[in-house]
Description:
The chain is an alpha/beta fold. Helix content is 28%, strand content 20%.
Amino acid sequence: VPPFALGEAMQGGAVGEVVERNDDGIKVGDMVLHMAGWRDEAVVPAAQVQKLPALDVPPQAFLGQLGMPGMTGYFGLLQVAEAKAGDTVFVSAAAGAVGSTVVQVAKAKGMTVIGSAGGAEKCAWVKSLGADAVIDYKSDVPVVKLLGEAAPKGIDVYFDNVGGDHLDAALAHARMHARFAVCGMIDVYNSGAATQLKYLARLIGNRVQIRGFIVSDYMNRADEFYKDMGGMLAAGTLKRQETVHEGLETMPDAFLGLFSGGNTGKMLVKV
């Protein structure tokens, strides 16, 4: 994804109601998912919108657990990391939209889960999702030590949203043939310094697999995702939390809040 350019309209995922249409496959009143966010109204080709499936969930769920964040967590855990029942899974940014989905799907599939979050409130939220242990990365204790205490026998799977010291800690405590799914590096996006990994050499001896991925790799399996995740949501197996800002003028603050942990669950703006 290219960087945002100065003077260019911002884009982002959005759910909206169709008010006019020139395509027979779309009706006025349909709810659709599109990438022309950051505006009150948008005119987009029909090929660039996705009609929302008929599931008994609120529309904003398709921006979270039934949208890109949920699909990222679901396929990253089960396909990229090949996580299975009995595995011990470490999840960074576990209070966020992707991380909280990973925690809950992992528990629903019979795994032991250790989540990382910043601050007592977020840690309590992750614990309420069913995590077996939660570490507070904002404490004075290094993440590598906290993870060692939470997983004395090591981890089988690491779901990486942040990189940095969390990735290094996961390498330090990786079991033989551990699998890492890497979808984000928010710790280093705006940092000019290179990431230093003290425990990188452990991936050789322990045969650790590290795989980066993009959620679009799995868009052709959306029906499978909606069936499984939609069923869990309808059954109440999954909890959903959102941080909602009101008004288009709040978009910049909401966006920047993502880089400082200003959200619990999915960050949304209601226009």
